[in-house]
Structures are given as C-alpha cells and as structure tokens.
C-alpha cells in the first residue's frame, strides 16, 4: 500500500533561514515537517516567521503549490526532541556531532541529508553507521526564492539516495544539480567567489564604483544568466563553441592572465566597500532590502514558470 505525502515526514534539524525555508518547501508539496532546535524560542521564532511569509506570499499571489496557507501551515510543527524529526552552523565538529545523534535514531533506509555549504560529505559522514545513506544538499540563499540545490554524494553514498533526493527536491519545485565528485566549496560557491574576487580587484584598482559593479551584474550579465548559463551564452554568441573559441579564445586567455593573485578581504578597501554600500542601504534597513529582494526573486520564478508553460 502506498503512502500519501501527508503520511510521510521530513525532519529538519536547525530552525534558521535554511531550516525554515526547507520546511516551507516541503509543506507546500504536502509533506509533514518537524523543525527541531535545541532552543524552544528559536523554534517559535521560525514558526512565526513562516506564518508571516506564507501570508505575504499569498497576498502577492506567489504562494507555492496547491495547498492553502492554513493547509501548508498545519503540516509544519516544531519540537525540541531530536527523535521527533540538519540545518546547523557550518562547523565540522558541530555537524559531525549532530549527525552522530541523528544516525543513532535513523532507520536503515532513511536518507540523512545535510545543508552544508562547503564541507564535503565524506568529512561529515565518515564515522556514521549509516554513512551510505548520507548526502549533502547545498541550497542557494534564500532557498525558498532561489530554487537551485547542489546535490553532493560521498564516495560511499548509495545510488538510490541520490535518485530519491533529486526526486524529492524536484517535487518541492527546487532544481537539483549533481556534483559528480567532492570539491572544496562545491560549484555554486566557486563560481560566485570567482565573481566576487574579480569585483573586489576591479574596485581596489579604481576601475569602477561598488554601485556600478553591481549594475554590471543586475542590469547586464544577470539578466541573461537568469535564463541561460555562461556556457550556453557563449554557444549562442557565436556559431557554437568551436566558433566562439576561434573568435574569443585568445582574448579570454589574455585577460585571464591579468587577474593576478587572490585578494584578501581586509584593510582600507574593505572599509570603503562597506561604507559605500551602507550609504545606500543602512544596516538597520537590511531586512527591508532582503524583503525587496525576495519579492522580486519570487516574481522572477513565477515569470519563468509562466514562460515555460508557453
């Protein structure tokens, strides 16, 4: 006899941004969700935040799934008992400790997934009894509004764990991509950090202001990257990759040679970037700006979904 999604439970350890975002995603798809946190007040804060976000999403016409706000909210509960349900801080010892406790509570066929953002899965899971059921799912921040999730198995992860994890993420409306082998900081961060590093260098060398550097992405590259990636962009900007190489290969290599050594984020340049950003977005207005961002990310996702239906 098959079970419905409402009869299946997803346990989430950690009630911060990543934790409560995953809770909303799974509830929108009809799963029962238990959010665990060692601090009762953290659980209550997460549930209150979920209430506010679901109501706002419904008002904006951006609520995910077919369930109502009340139906989604009824599927999410909080607990301070780990046995009833991992989105804890990026600390290897902490991750290992939490997963050791989870490991002792899990059935042999359970999937143990970590929302690690840089720690490779073999480091976290090497001492677990159920290490073959362990996998890392690295979401894009903020997870509810940016659907990409990197799926990183350890060398010993069972193949069916990868398949089922991909299916579960796709059911929630997320877009899973598989990292085929362990690599420091995975793929999303490596691409992002290469961009941040070059932006830092350009500002340090006086090429452009912080605001204009951000516009290069938001009003230029980011517009097309929201629909196609950099490799397909290259493919379309010429008659295929070979033609792109013939046209731009030497120039690309020459420019790459000018990037220089990595910069450390410190000193006067750090202060200048902080001050320039704070002059436009004061620290006490960060939550307003985050909400502004999230609404636009949700609207963009709705647009993409609507376009894909045509």
From TrEMBL:
One biological process term from GO is: fatty acid metabolic process
Q: Which UniProt keywords apply?
A: Oxidoreductase
Q: Does the keyword Plastid apply?
A: no
Q: Which InterPro entries match?
A: 3-OHacyl-CoA_DH_NAD-bd, 3HC_DH_C, 6-PGluconate_DH-like_C_sf, 6PGD_dom2, NAD(P)-bd_dom_sf
Q: Which GO terms describe its molecular function?
A: L-gulonate 3-dehydrogenase activity; NAD+ binding
Question: Where does the record place the 3-hydroxyacyl-CoA dehydrogenase NAD binding domain?
Answer: 9-181
What Pfam families would the database entry show?
3HCDH, 3HCDH_N
Q: Where is the 3-hydroxyacyl-CoA dehydrogenase C-terminal domain?
A: 186-254
What family, per the record? Answer: Belongs to the 3-hydroxyacyl-CoA dehydrogenase family.
Protein name per its UniProtKB record: Lambda-crystallin-like protein
Organism per entry: Magallana gigas (Pacific oyster)
């Amino acid at each position: 006899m098959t079970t419905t999604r409402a009869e299946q439970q997803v346990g989430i350890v950690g009630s911060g941004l990543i934790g409560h975002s995953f809770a909303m995603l799974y509830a929108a798809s009809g799963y029962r969700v238990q959010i665990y946190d060692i601090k009762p007040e953290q659980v209550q804060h997460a549930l209150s935040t979920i209430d506010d976000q679901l109501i706002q999403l419904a008002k904006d016409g951006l609520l995910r799934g077919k369930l109502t706000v009340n139906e989604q909210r009824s599927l999410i509960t909080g607990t301070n008992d780990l046995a009833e349900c991992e989105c804890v801080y990026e600390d290897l010892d902490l991750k290992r400790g939490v997963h050791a406790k989870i490991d002792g509570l899990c059935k042999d066929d359970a999937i143990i997934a970590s929302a690690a953002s840089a720690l490779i899965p073999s480091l976290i899971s090497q001492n677990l009894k159920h290490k073959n059921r362990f996998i890392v799912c690295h979401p894009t921040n903020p997870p509810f509004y940016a659907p990409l999730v990197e799926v990183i198995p350890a060398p010993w992860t069972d193949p069916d764990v990868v398949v089922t994890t991909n299916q579960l993420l796709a059911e929630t409306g997320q877009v899973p991509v598989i990292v085929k082998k362990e690599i420091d900081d995975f793929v999303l961060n490596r691409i992002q950090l290469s961009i941040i590093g070059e932006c830092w260098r350009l500002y340090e060398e006086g090429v452009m202001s912080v605001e204009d550097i951000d516009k290069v992405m938001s009003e230029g590259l980011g517009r097309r990257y929201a629909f196609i990636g950099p490799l397909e962009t290259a493919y379309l900007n010429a008659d295929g990759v070979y033609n792109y190489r013939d046209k731009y290969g030497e120039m690309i290599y020459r420019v790459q040679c000018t990037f220089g050594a990595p910069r450390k984020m410190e000193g006067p340049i750090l202060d200048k970037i902080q001050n320039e950003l704070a002059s436009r977005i004061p620290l006490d207005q960060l939550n307003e700006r985050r909400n502004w961002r999230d609404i636009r990310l949700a609207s963009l996702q709705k647009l993409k979904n609507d376009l894909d239906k045509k």
